[in-house]
């Protein structure tokens, strides 16, 4: 379980594709403070991964085909910056929203423009994800918990403050790049319950 508040960054140091998926090694900030262990869940660009090895500040993960199909992790390149969030502990303050790290889809950045001190970013919505997008609801984008500022068919917009632009990778995503999307878990369960009752 995560909060969607990104406190740390990471840098991809290895991205080795094999028959069964990708071996991903990320040099992560916060290792000394967070003290992760082998087997811990860590979100990389919003995708919950299991640490399989930790050497200093480098953490290795195995990324399986299911994860590669639903997310942008297969597109990462060595040297690329990623968002890192260590899993919540009992008693931690939840300043964002509950995020599982179970990415539903990847989507394209359609537009970005300056707005006040920050930026307004429009992101495409795959048809399967559309039912989960509602104005003033929330969506996790590359693991960042964000409020939907505006929504329409096939798109939604987020308003990014300067802190988010600097602290996360969302300030680096040009038009045409892709981001990971995770629906509000509550919205997902409500939709499934309503469909089951029909």
- From the N-terminal CA to the C-terminal CA, the straight-line distance is 31 Å
Radius of gyration: 16 Å
Just give the CATH class of the largest domain: Mainly Beta
The overall pLDDT average reads 94
Residue ranges: pLDDT <50 for 5 or more in a row?
none
Order of helices and strands: EEHEEEHEEEEEEHEH
Main beta-sheet annotation: 6 strands, antiparallel, barrel
Shape call: globular
CATH architecture of the largest domain: Beta Barrel
Helix share bin = 10-25%
Helix count, per DSSP? Answer: 4
Structural class: mainly beta
CATH T-level topology of the largest domain: Elongation Factor Tu (Ef-tu), domain 3
Quick one: how many beta strands?
12
Percent in strands: 35-45%
Brief synopsis:
This protein is mostly beta strands. It contains four helices and twelve strands.
Q: What secondary-structure arrangement, pairings included, does this model have?
A:
Blueprint: E1 8-18, E2 21-28, H1 31-34, E3 41-44, E4 47-55, E5 58-63, H2 65-70, E6 81-86, E7 105-115, E8 118-124, E9 138-141, E10 144-152, E11 155-160, H3 162-167, E12 178-183, H4 185-196
Antiparallel strand pairs: 1-2, 1-6, 2-5, 3-4, 3-6, 4-5, 7-8, 7-12, 8-11, 9-10, 9-12, 10-11
Structural overview:
The chain is mostly beta strands and about 200 residues long. It folds into 2 domains: about 10-85, Beta Barrel (Elongation Factor Tu (Ef-tu), domain 3); about 105-195, Elongation Factor Tu (Ef-tu), domain 3. Helices cover about 15% and strands about 45% of the residues. The protein has 4 helices and 12 strands. It has helices spanning about 30-35, 65-70, 160-165, 185-195, and strands at about 10-20, 20-30, 40-45, 45-55, 60-65, 80-85, 105-115, 120-125, 140, 145-150, 155-160, 180-185. It has a 6-stranded antiparallel barrel with strand order 1-2-5-4-3-6. The chain has a 6-stranded antiparallel beta barrel with strand order 7-8-11-10-9-12. The longest helix is centred in the last third of the chain and has 12 residues, at about 185-195. The radius of gyration is 16 Å and the shape is globular. The mean pLDDT is about 95.
């Amino acid at each position: 379980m995560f909060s969607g508040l990104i406190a740390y960054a990471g840098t991809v140091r290895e991205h080795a594709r094999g028959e069964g998926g990708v071996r991903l090694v990320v040099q992560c900030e916060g290792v000394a403070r967070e003290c992760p262990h082998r087997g811990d869940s860590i979100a990389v660009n919003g995708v919950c991964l299991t640490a399989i090895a930790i050497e200093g500040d480098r953490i290795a993960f195995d990324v399986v085909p299911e994860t590669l199909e639903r997310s942008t992790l297969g597109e990462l390149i060595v040297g690329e910056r990623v968002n890192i969030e260590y899993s919540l502990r009992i008693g931690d303050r939840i300043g964002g929203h509950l995020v599982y790290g179970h990415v539903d889809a990847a989507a394209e950045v359609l537009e970005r423009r300056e707005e006040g001190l920050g930026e307004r970013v429009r992101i495409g919505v795959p048809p399967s994800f559309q039912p989960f997008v509602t104005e003033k609801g929330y969506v996790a984008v590359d693991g960042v918990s964000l409020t939907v500022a505006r929504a329409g068919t096939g798109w939604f917009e987020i308003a990014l403050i300067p802190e988010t632009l600097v602290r996360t990778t969302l300030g680096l995503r040009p038009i045409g790049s892709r981001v990971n999307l995770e629906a509000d878990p509550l919205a997902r369960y409500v939709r499934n319950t309503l469909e089951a009752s029909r």
